[in-house]
Amino acid sequence: MDIDDKNKDINRLFNSEESVNTRKQFLDHIEKWLSHHTNQNDDDLTGLAVLLADGVIDFTQIDNDDLQTYPGIRDSLNRAFNFASKQFEMYDQRLDTLHSKFSKDFEDLDLQIVTDKTAFRGYLRSLTYAEEYYFISRKLKKIHDSVGT
């Protein structure tokens, strides 16, 4: 960066050529990284959705022009959001099915034990995943809505 005392124009650091180039490189890497992870298996996509929901990168701070230049960012965020939402719906439906299976056990539970422990563990697992995917999808929805996907 050239600092010239004779130059009357003040070059802003945020708009400097170096800053613009670094931002472009970063967004290019992010676009490729997101695209790679959204085209993998469900476990990788789940990991990506969790990372995005953690807010490691604040995608809401990327301006619209940059999002237009790097459309893979929006596309990948959209895929992650849709995946998390579908996972929540799947586990929620599974809970509805399992809940009806255990409703009699719940009614008769006074001090009795649930009769099918393996199925009940599956119910508890689905309950946990449904809740986690719900929170992940809500966080991703905020990102999704703010970047206009």
Structure description:
- The chain is 72% helix and 0% strand.
- The protein is mainly α and 149 residues long.
- Helix 1 crosses helix 4 (71-107) and helix 4 packs antiparallel against helix 5.
- The protein starts with 16 loop residues before the first helix and ends with a helix.
Helix content: over 70%
| Average of per-residue pLDDT values | 84
Radius of gyration: 23 Å
Spans where pLDDT lies below 50 across 5 or more residues: none
**Helical/strand content category:** mainly alpha
Cα-to-Cα separation, first versus last residue: 36 Å
Q: How is the main sheet built?
A: none
User: Based on the structure, what is the oligomeric state of the protein chains?
Assistant: single chain
* Structural shape: elongated
Number of helices: 5
Beta-strand portion reads: under 5%
Instruction: Spell the H/E element sequence.
Output: HHHHH
Give the number of DSSP strands: 0
How do the helices and strands line up, and which of them pair or pack?
Layout lengths: L16 H22 L3 H12 L10 H6 L1 H37 L9 H31 L2
Short synopsis of the structure:
This protein is mainly alpha-helical and 149 residues long. 72% of the residues lie in helices and 0% in strands.
